[in-house]
Each structure stands twice: as structure tokens, then as C-alpha cells.
Design brief:
- The protein is of the alpha/beta class.
- Helix content is about 30%, strand content about 30%.
- A hairpin with a 2-residue loop joins strand 7 (about 185-190) and strand 8 (about 190-195).
- The radius of gyration is 22 Å and the shape is globular.
């Protein structure tokens, strides 16, 4: 079957990604075996396309981090992938192999190790060809980096940078040094746009032990993301937190967009991967002080974040 290729510029909007997901399903239908390759772009963008494809299929998305599986060597990788495909044969779910460049971009000077990984790669290609449901494979490498993987894919979604026109009088990249306002922003949780009045505490840090200044960094910690909004009749944030309280491990992607003005195109984009609410705080009521606005607050932990 010839591959269909969709090109996605980096300055896409979310509706464009949903349109691509719908087009892929429209070409092949939800019940046929399908191999979709997401090439290039940022982790959050590839995750979003994979999530939308799963929703279009009406199936659960199972994410497998190939960087983790390949970290312990060829023998471990071979056994882990075999167990995974054996279990998936009856699972009726969409497999999402993320960080595939860890496997297909593997290079080693040791012939035996190299040969083993070639066998693993070939077995992986055979297994994805035989899988009866959809498979999504994502690689951070740009399109054209892994020819065998592209040849095995039915649909290739390419994330490519838009062409730019150099300014008059010279070439090179234009640097925008103008300060940007913090008053206009957009927050999307999963695929739902939610209005917040404040977002704070974004960041990360390494621990530094006593006497370690200038030495190796210690443990990495990501700051929890704190979001505040005016209370309405919507209980969506409270119910998300309640799912965690009840023991349901409900993780979602959060995207934060900074806008130069109301209704303008985003100029900055942060993606927070695998978020979950560790705290929800309801409004305080006070007739004596304050601005009269009832506010709820949610605090999110996440696996990592990326400034795109």
C-alpha cells in the first residue's frame, strides 16, 4: 500500500491536527491495520496527534517509550518488545511507540551489538506489519532520517518548519526583543480550552548538596503548575481531582499559549506532559474584604514540560 504523507508546519493550530486525524481515519477506517509515523516536531505536538487519532478510532491509547525499553541493551529490548506485542494481540488498543529514534537511530561500534539491534529493528518492523489495529510511531528526528521506518508506514505526518523570508537589507533570523504582556494567554487541558485568570509556578530546578556548588547537579524537580480561575457552574477541575482521590490515574496534557493581544496568534507555547491534579482548592467567601470574585485553584504535577 503506498504511503500517504501529511505535512504539518510548526506554526499549526490545534484544529489542523484534528483535521489530519480525521483524514487518516477517513482514508483507512477504524478497523483496519494502520501504521502512522509522526516525524519531527515537539513531544507535545506528536502526543496531541496520537491522542486525537485514538479518539477518532474510539480506542484506548497505550504509550510505549522506546527510549526506556532500549536503555538496557539489545537482549532486553528484544524480550520486552516480544512480551508487549504478545499482550497487545488481545488488547484491542492503539499502540503508541514514542521516542522511536532511540531504536532506529541506534549506532554502535561493536559489531555483535549492532547486528543484534538490526535483528530487533527487523523484528519490530515485522510485528507492526502484522498488528491488526492501529499503531502510531513517533520520532523526534526530522523527516527522511529513517527510511526503513518510513517505508513501513501507511501514513507519514511530517512536522516541518515554515519557510521564512529574510528581512530587507540582510539575511538571517529575526530576533524579537520586544517585551510581551502576561495578560493574554490560553490554556488547553486535553482537547478542552479552559479560561483561567492566572497561571504561575512554572519551572524546574536541581538540588545542590552542601559543598556541591559547582559540582554535579542533584535530583531534578519540576515545580507544580498552579492555575486559578473564577468559579462558575462547571465542576470539571473538581471532578478531575476527584478521580485522583478515588484512585483513577487520570493524566492529561496541558498546553499553555502566550498571546501578544486578545485574539492574536500565539507567540509562545509550553506543553506539560502527563499532568495530574495533586490539589484542588475551592473559593473563600468574605463580605468584608476582597474584590468579590470567587476563585478556585488547581495545582498540577507533571512528568516534564517543553517550551516549544
Amino acid at each position: 500500500m503506498p504511503s500517504r504523507r501529511e505535512t504539518v508546519p510548526i506554526d499549526f493550530d490545534r484544529r489542523r491536527l484534528r483535521d489530519i486525524a480525521a483524514k487518516v481515519i477517513g482514508h483507512y477506517g477504524p478497523r483496519k491495520g494502520l501504521r502512522v509515523l509522526l516525524a519531527g516536531g515537539a513531544p507535545g505536538d506528536r502526543q496531541l496527534v496520537a491522542t486525537q487519532l485514538a479518539k477518532q478510532h474510539g480506542k484506548r491509547l497505550e504509550r510505549i517509550d522506546l527510549a526506556v525499553i532500549t536503555a538496557e541493551g539489545g537482549a532486553h529490548t528484544e524480550k520486552a518488545l516480544k512480551r508487549l506485542f504478545d499482550a497487545a494481540a488481545t488488547a484491542d488498543s492503539i499502540l503508541f511507540f514514542d521516542e522511536a529514534d532511540a531504536l532506529f537511530g541506534r549506532r554502535t561500534a561493536v559489531a555483535e551489538s549492532h547486528d543484534r539491534y538490526q535483528r530487533v529493528v527487523q523484528r519490530f518492523l515485522t510485528d507492526i506489519a502484522a498488528y491488526r489495529h492501529a499503531i502510531i510511531i513517533a520520532t523526534a528526528d526530522p523527516p527522511g532520517s529513517h527510511t526503513r521506518l518510513e517505508a513501513a508506514s501507511d501514513v507519514i505526518v511530517r512536522f516541518e518548519a515554515p519557510r521564512t523570508t529574510p528581512p530587507e537589507g540582510g539575511g538571517g533570523e529575526t530576533v524579537f526583543a520586544q517585551p510581551l504582556s502576561n495578560r493574554h494567554f490560553l490554556v488547553v487541558i486535553g482537547d478542552q480550552e479552559i479560561g483561567f485568570c492566572q497561571v504561575s509556578a512554572m519551572g524546574s530546578e536541581h538540588a545542590v548538596g552542601e559543598g556541591d556548588a559547582g559540582g554535579k547537579p542533584g535530583a531534578l524537580t519540576y515545580h507544580c503548575l498552579v492555575l486559578r480561575r473564577a468559579v462558575s457552574r462547571s465542576k470539571d477541575l473538581y471532578l478531575w481531582r476527584q478521580r485522583i482521590v478515588d484512585g483513577t490515574w487520570d493524566r492529561r496534557q496541558v498546553d499553555l499559549y502566550q498571546l501578544p493581544g486578545a485574539g492574536a496568534k500565539p507567540v509562545n507555547h509550553w506543553t506539560f506532559i502527563n499532568c495530574w491534579p495533586r490539589r484542588w482548592q475551592g473559593p473563600a467567601f468574605d463580605t468584608m474584604e476582597g474584590d468579590g470574585l470567587a476563585v478556585e485553584e488547581i495545582e498540577l504535577c507533571y512528568e516534564r514540560f517543553v517550551w516549544l
